[in-house]
Amino acid sequence: MDAYVVDGLTRRHGTVLANDRISLRVAAGEVFGLLGPNGAGKSTLVRQLVALIRPDAGRIALRGRALERRTVGRWVGYLPQGDGALADVPVALALTTTARLRGLGRSAARGTRDELIHELGLAAVADRPLGLLSGGQRRLAAFATVLAGERPVLVLDEPTTGLDPVARRSVWSALSRRRREQGATVVLVTHNVLEAETVLDRVAVLDRGRVIACDTPGALKAAVSSDVRLDLVWRHAPPMDEPVVARLAADAVVDGQRWSLRMPTEQARTALGQLTSGAAYAALDDFTLATPSLEDVYLALGGRARDLEHGG
Amino acid sequence: MIVTMSTSVSSAGAVPVGVAVDGTPVDSTGPVDAAIGGCRPGLLAATVAVFGQQLARARVARVPVLFVAAFQSVGILLLLRGVVDTSNALSKQQVVAGATVLVVAFVCLNLLAQRLGGLRHDGSLDYYAALDVPGAAVVLGAAGSYAAFTVPGSIVTAFGGAALYDLPMSRLWVLVLVLPLAAASLAGLGALLGLLAPKPELATIAGQLGMSAVIFLNLIPAHRMPEAIRWLRAITPSTYAADALAASFDSRVDWGSIWVDLLVCVAVSVVALGLAGALFRRQVAR
Description:
The structure holds 2 protein chains of 2 kinds. Chain A is α/β, with parallel strands linked by helices.
């Protein structure tokens, strides 16, 4: 059974078309990602998935039934971007009370609290209010509240934003454990390319309210696999009188001293050979030749924003 | 306790889920039923959980809140001591009762309206809306936590005011009834303002206007007011809590009128809290 079936979902915010006829399926037990830059409509989509806003048009089915605002909380654990309601609440109390709000009895809620504090390494901050924690610890604590009280579907709006690599891995491993042991379905919003490539089973790439691609990360990358990415970093102004430099300049996406190009493998190899053997080499500070990432998929499919993250 | 049992299957196998007939969940490990989903908290359990969370908020701000709430009312009492005709028993009773209810209005009406207005505006109430928590539990839990923080200030004001204005304290036990009912009715109105205001600034302004209404209509002795203002006073919910407390200072207490005043407070509380609870989900999820 599909965890979610979204069909023709459209939602406007004033004059802005935040979601434009979005259709997708999330299979039960799948880790499904929504990747896109800021303003792509990811949060609007997930807020509709948990019935916090109504679509202007289109339908959402949760586990085979039309999504109902009244019962969605029994199926779905939701991590919003903000955690203001819990900002003044100590971490341990936030976990116990959230578990109680998901219907657990007192001792079960306390047990869940202790397990989560141990699992996510929150012991040192358990007695401190979320609002007084560092950004990463605060996000990790908010993530922990989503796991307080088992739900078969987890909808997470940027769960790893601001996390250090260790905490990020804790989140991934907690999610993977729940999928393995409970068959949990995860819908995860991210604008981190590395996260999308390493933890997602399938990913929908969003741009300006539309799904521009939806498949496994591998299949999406294979779709643009004839190309590789050549990144050049110039020490100082690139020598435009060099023919190879002038030729590359025409296609490069320039960001300060950094040039980024997509091209067929053979062409990239030739260009790199000319660059490293010619006079341009003296002006070159660094270069990388890489197979396509999901960001390349996004750009190849017409995505325009440039604020996808790469960090892990 | 009568417990209904159903069986659900999780990865750990078949686990019984228990829900008492009053809606309170009995201890369970919270597995998910294949047909109805996870457990839903009963109203009482959910209210207590929200109360605990919101109390943590009040705990962070307790010193300034308690100081301002008590200081403001005691300060007004001291100021009015030189203005009010202290030979008139009715004036003294109304000033002390009005100042006591003002503490409640400051916290339950003004601060709660601000708090809920702010939480709603920045999307923080999504946390509750997405949890399948009854709206009434959120409103009652938040109202209860703010009501708890009126207790020290209002007791200090009532007893301090009685001492300052030479009023009898022997019947101040009525505070046990007046304070919760004043808090419930004003918190209900505060919650409504916070949830209904289209912008958080408007919730703040509305809360402050409500508090000003308490100052002008309940602190200033009613018999000195023009007829039109007295009508306005009659439709202000805080009036009934203030009048009930004022009447308890009287040498010949009219218990009948006190009970009627308290019943009005009960009615306002039920309507305002009920309405706020019913509107919660609609106002948060758009």
